[in-house]
Amino acid sequence: MFATAFSFLYQFGDAFAFLVIASMGLAIIFGMMGVINLAHGEFITCGAYVTATLAQKGLPLPLAILGGAACAGIIGMILEITIIRRLYHRPLDSIVATWGISMIATQGVLIVLGSTMQGVGTPLGSFSVGGYSYSTYRLVLMAIAVLLLLGLYLLFYHTRFGVIARATIQLPRMARATGVDTSRIYTLTFGLGAALAGLAGGLYAPTMTLVPTMGSTFIVESFVTVVIGGGDIFMGAAPAAAILAVIRAGMTAWQGQLFGQIGLLLTVIVVIRLMPGGLSGWLLRGRK
Asked: Where are the transmembrane segments (predicted)?
């Protein structure tokens, strides 16, 4: 009985961590900024590839992961300055542009680095409960997901940058009138979202086969989480990740991973039909 309960809780924590870590960057770029970023998976791939490269050159894994996140963030800021900046409030154009960036990045990695890359191996080993073996590293990922939510909350609600960023995104003309350099804030915010995507790739690089299309593993769950959650990271994406984790863990335990994926897609259909503004829209309306 204990082994079964622990197995479900472990699967729930693993799914929750994956959804939170994979979707936080998209929650900022898509949920907050309104940019439909189809290149989100490629930022994740960038983080994973840079992490693996740095780790193979002898850099400790935590520093390699941070290096992958930093590289993705820098590329994100460059893309925001050169391309994305002209596409705010133009959702169809942003879809086409970011899709083009995605195709260029995927094919470029395939041509330059080949169809696969040597991984770094999953650290920390495993432990057993009731005859079943579990990865210790995935427990670390669960803790990182919680710390990531806490860190973003403190950043956006308890720092000057966070207040200015939220004001700029919600009322850019008013922020500009008060002397805020809105272009710089947009660049930094987009770069933060890209860095978080790179961090997701770096964190999961030890658990996956590194291929140019690995970002597609993340992007469906990321969009599902953000769409269900709505525009608010903490009142939307985090509760959505918890709900989807329960559904995914339950369906997976019942009928396998395929049914877990089907459960996620059915959930997003139902939520969009009943709550077009997502969970955060429904919660905020309830407050009013």
From this structure: 12-39, 59-84, 96-117, 137-156, 185-204, 224-247, 259-284
Separation between Cα atoms, residue 209 and residue 82, nearest integer Å: 32
- pLDDT above 70 as % of the chain: 91
Predicted TM-score (pTM) of the model is 0.89
Q: Would the pLDDT of 226 be above 60?
A: yes
What is the predicted pLDDT for the residue at 10?
Answer: 87
Distances (CA, A) of 183 to 45, 54, 59, 80: 27, 32, 35, 10
How far is residue 235's CA from residue 277's CA, in Å, rounded to a whole number?
12
Going by C-alpha positions, the residue among 40, 100, 278, 87 that lies closest to residue 186 is 87
Q: What would the pLDDT profile of 161-209 be if each residue is shown by its tens digit?
A: 888 888 887 788 888 888 888 889 999 999 999 999 999 999 999 988 8
Range of the domain at 25: 2-287
Number of domains within the chain: 1
Contact 38, 98 (CB under 8 A): yes
Distance CA 71, CA 94 (A): 22
Quick one: which of 19, 3, 2 has its CA closest to 141?
19
Give the pair of three-digit tokens for residue 191: 């770069």
Instruction: Check which CATH number belongs to the domain holding 198 and give it.
Output: 1.10.3470
- Collapsed DSSP state (helix, strand, coil) of residue 115: coil
Does residue 33 contact residue 187 with C-beta atoms inside 8 Å?
Answer: no
Q: Give the residue among 24, 28, 17 at the shortest CA–CA distance from 162.
A: 28
Question: What is the C-alpha separation between 45 and 51, in angstroms, rounded?
Answer: 10
